[in-house]
C-alpha cells in the first residue's frame, strides 16, 4: 500500500469518526424544567428545555432550595409554536438560549397569558420573556 493510499484511508477513517461524533449530541443531554408564575389571582406553569450545562447547574442549585427561597427567574428569547412539552401555550422559550437570572429589565416582565394574548408583540417587538415572578418548580420527564 502506497503512502497516498494509506493517507487516503486514514482521512476516510478520520472523517467517518468526526461525522459519527457530531451526531452523538443526543436528546439524552436535554433537560426539561417546569416553571410556575404566581400572582395574586392565578398561577401559570410553562416548561422550558435546555442542554446548556451552565444553565442546568443554576437550575439544579435553585431546586436544592425550598421553593420559598428560590429567587431566580427565567429570561430568554421566545418563539411562536406549540411544542409537545409546553402544550398549554402557543409559544416556547428557544432551547439553549434562555438563562436563569436574578435581575431583568422590566420590558420583558409579564404573565404567560400576556404573551399568549399578544404573541406578535412579544416575539417581534420585545423579543424575549422574563417573568419576574416565575420560579423553577421541578425537572420533568418527557
Using only CA atoms, what is the Rg?
20 Å
Record the strand order, biggest sheet. 2-1-7
As for the number of domains, it is: 1
User: In percent, how helical is the residue content?
Assistant: 25-40%
Q: Give the number of helices.
A: 4
Low-confidence stretches: 18-26
Q: How far apart are the termini?
A: 52 Å
Shape: globular
- Quote the average pLDDT: 86
Largest sheet report: 3 strands, antiparallel
Keywords: Signal
Organism: Rhodohalobacter mucosus
Pfam family, one: BP74_N
Protein name: BP74 N-terminal domain-containing protein
Describe this structure in words.
With 142 residues, this protein is an alpha+beta fold. The chain has one domain (27-140). It is 32% helix and 25% strand. The chain is built from 4 helices and 7 strands. The chain has helices spanning 3-22, 53-63, 112-117, 119-126, and strands at 31-38, 43-50, 73-75, 78-80, 91-93, 99-101, 134-140. The strands form 3 sheets. The chain has a 3-stranded antiparallel beta sheet, covered by helices on one side. Strand 1 (31-38) and strand 2 (43-50) form a beta hairpin. The longest helix has 20 residues, at 3-22. The radius of gyration is 20 Å and the shape is globular.
Amino acid at each position: 500500500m502506497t503512502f497516498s493510499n494509506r493517507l487516503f484511508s486514514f482521512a476516510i477513517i478520520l472523517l467517518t469518526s468526526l461525522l459519527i461524533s457530531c451526531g452523538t449530541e443526543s436528546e439524552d443531554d436535554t433537560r426539561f424544567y417546569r416553571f410556575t408564575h404566581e400572582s395574586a389571582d392565578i398561577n401559570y406553569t410553562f416548561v422550558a428545555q435546555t442542554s446548556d450545562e451552565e444553565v442546568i447547574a443554576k437550575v439544579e442549585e435553585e431546586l436544592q432550595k425550598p421553593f420559598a427561597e428560590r429567587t431566580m427567574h427565567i429570561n430568554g428569547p421566545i418563539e411562536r409554536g406549540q411544542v409537545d412539552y409546553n402544550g398549554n401555550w402557543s409559544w416556547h422559550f428557544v432551547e439553549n438560549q434562555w438563562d436563569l437570572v436574578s435581575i431583568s429589565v422590566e420590558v420583558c416582565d409579564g404573565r404567560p397569558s400576556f404573551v399568549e394574548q399578544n404573541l406578535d408583540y412579544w416575539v417581534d417587538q420585545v423579543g424575549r420573556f422574563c417573568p419576574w415572578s416565575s420560579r423553577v418548580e421541578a425537572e420533568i420527564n418527557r
